[in-house]
Amino acid sequence: MARILLENVTKVFDGEVAAVSDFNLEVADGEFMVIVGPSGCGKTTTLRMIAGLEEVTSGNIYIGDTLVNDVPPRDRNIAMVFQNYALYPHMTARQNMAFALKMRKCPRAEINKRIDEAARLLGIERLLKRKPRALSGGQRQRVALGRAIVRKPRAFLFDEPLSNLDARLRLTTRAEIKDLHRRLQTTTIYVTHDQAEAMSLGDRLCVVDDGVIQQIADPVEVYERPANRFVAGFLGTPPMNFFSGCITYRADEVCFVIGDQVIVLPQRLTSALRDYRNKDMILGVRPENISSNQFPGQANNVISATVNVVEPLGARTDVYLTNHGGQKFIAGIDPHTRLRANDTVEMYVDLEKVHIFEFEGAGRNVALSNQPG
Ligand SMILES: Nc1ncnc2c1ncn2[C@@H]1O[C@H](COP(=O)(O)OP(=O)(O)O)[C@@H](O)[C@H]1O
Ligand SMILES: [Mg+2]
Question: Do both 36 and 122 map to the same domain?
Answer without folding.
Answer: yes
